[in-house]
Specification:
This protein has about 100 residues and is mostly helical. Helices cover about 45% and strands about 10% of the residues. The strands form two sheets. A two-stranded parallel ribbon has the order 1-2. Strands 3-4 form a two-stranded antiparallel ribbon. β3 and β4 form a beta hairpin. α2 packs across α3. The radius of gyration is 12 Å and the shape is globular.
């Protein structure tokens, strides 16, 4: 994956305000690659090698948290993001409006 693309994705993630979440698809649309939400997920999985970014604020289209990353829910709750259940945020209440 090209570093330029990774930084483009991470620059959008960096803009997500505290207390809000964005979806992979939403980020893909913002960078002009609307059909590449999986590409966004792949880039975020490598984010730790590029600095500190609020990747915990990104969820799937249904508001599902990343499977196996329990810290994500804890970080979101600390920011005031409402969870519908243990594995989903309530997108109606906290989705980033651009």
């Amino acid at each position: 994956m090209q570093e330029d693309l990774i930084y483009e994705i991470l620059s959008v993630v960096e803009e997500i305000p505290e207390g809000c979440v964005a979806t992979y698809g939403q980020i893909a649309r913002l960078i002009g690659r609307e059909k590449n939400s999986r590409l966004v997920g792949k880039a975020l999985s490598m984010a730790e090698y590029y600095g500190e970014y609020p990747c915990h604020r990104v969820v799937n289209h249904a508001g599902r948290l990343v499977p196996g990353w329990r810290e994500q829910g804890v970080l979101l709750i600390r920011e005031g993001v409402p969870l519908k259940d243990e594995f989903h945020v309530d997108l109606r209440q906290c989705q980033w409006e651009i």
